[in-house]
Amino acid sequence: MRALRREGHFCKVVEDEDTALQELRSRGLSLILLDDAPALPAVSDIRQWTMLPILLIADPGHVESFKTPLEADDLLMKPVREEELLFRVRNLCEKGASVAEGAGRDSAKIGGLTLDEDHYEIRLDGALIDLTFREFELLKHLMQNPGRVFDRNQLLNLVWGVDYIGGPRTVDVHVRRIRAKVETGGHIFINTVRGVGYKFMENPE
Q: What are the residues whose beta carbons fall under 8 Å from the beta carbon of 122, sequence distance 6 or more?
């Protein structure tokens, strides 16, 4: 990391899965360096949260277990040589910038509510809404599927994961918090489907 910082990169180091996923909400990230350590999330897990370029750093003995095509954007074998690390980081950052300029970022705008998934931002009429990680993910899934009804268990699996031991009422609590933050000034975005769950309105008021 010292070599990257010398080149002017801001680096944030995390050592466990929960912290890693939380850090994906940080502003201005350009690249993810991922060690294939058991304590950290897999590439497939990270892809559920972001499409930022991923440089996977792996032990040579683990290569045979990787899926093909490789889910990461690039692969660097241990022991890591400083020159090669800098080159690959530079290449991925420049490639990612070119793609962003050409294609734009994943986003959606419905009824004054704007989703910018790459920056983990949701804005209402241009104003940034302060959402927790779970609130953002819950609203994102609803917003990306306007008109589709999700039951509570579906939303639990999408946002909290299939191993979550809490009950479906967790979803109700988070929906109430989201509504308190985004359904202001007469806006109505989320509709309760009695006995089933929730949907994001196709034509919000």
A: 113, 114, 115, 116, 128, 129, 131, 136, 139, 140, 143, 182
What 3-state DSSP class applies to 73? coil
What's the pLDDT score for residue 87? Answer: 92
Helix (H) or strand (E) holding 179: helix 169-182
Q: Selecting from 3.20.20.140, 3.40.50.2300, 3.40.50.10140, 3.40.50.300, what CATH number does the domain 2-103 have?
A: 3.40.50.2300
SS (H, E, C) 3-70: HHHHCCCCCCCCCCHHHHHHHCCCCCCCCEEEECCCCCCCHHHHCCCCCCCEEEEECHHHHHHCCCCC
Which residues does the chain have with pLDDT short of 50? 27, 100-105
Query: What is d(CA 88, CA 120) in angstroms, rounded to the nearest whole number?
Result: 25
Q: Which of 54, 58, 56 is nearest to 30 (CA)?
A: 54
Predicted TM-score (pTM) of the model is 0.51
Amino acid found at 105: R
